[in-house]
Design goal:
The chain has 146 residues and is α+β, with helices and mostly antiparallel strands. The chain has a single domain, classed as 2-Layer Sandwich (Alpha-D-Glucose-1,6-Bisphosphate, Chain A, domain 4), CATH 3.30.530. 28% of the residues lie in helices and 51% in strands. The chain has 3 helices and 7 strands. It has a 7-stranded antiparallel sheet. A hairpin with a 5-residue loop joins β2 and β3. α1 crosses α3. The longest helix is centred in the last third of the chain and has 28 residues. The chain starts with a strand and ends with a helix. The relative contact order is 0.24.
């Protein structure tokens, strides 16, 4: 059964600056504790990641995943291609410019292939959502300061 969640945060940066941080997937393990490693397998002509292999550790489980990114104006999403612990994963960042800030919405849907107690799943999703929003915000502000 798929678990879904969404979260919003305001980031004091342009959508372009935020998308640049998201596109730097190989740096994600430095600011996202769930990521052990991330490697771009295929890139689009503009250099943005298309297929990415990552090693994730969450809820006491380690999983290797391959995801496929889709980029649009002020939006990026990814879909699970292959994993050991998940049946499916779909995630999407939607960025709405607001003056010199950007409202960011993150939507996540995962379907676990392994049974876990509900409270463990909820705690894991909560941590993932916080990292995907607040953690991303901190990294964007850090990168923008240089």
């Amino acid at each position: 059964m798929a678990v879904k969640d969404s979260r919003e945060v305001v980031i004091e940066a342009s959508p372009e600056a935020i998308l640049d941080v998201i596109a730097d997937v190989e740096s994600t393990p430095s600011w996202s504790p769930q990521y052990q490693s991330a490697e771009v397998l295929e890139a689009y002509d503009d250099g943005r990641p298309h297929k990415v292999k990552m090693k994730i550790k969450a809820a006491g489980l380690t999983d290797e995943q391959i995801v496929e990114y889709t980029w649009a104006d002020n939006e990026v999403s990814w879909t699970l291609v292959k994993a050991g612990q998940l049946r499916s994963q779909d995630a999407k960042y939607t960025l709405t410019p607001d003056g010199d800030k950007t409202k960011l919405r993150f939507d996540l849907s995962i379907d676990l292939a392994v049974p876990l107690p509900g409270f463990v799943v909820k705690r894991t999703i909560k941590g993932a959502m916080e990292t995907a929003t607040d953690g991303l915000r901190k990294q964007v502000l850090k990168v923008n300061k240089g």
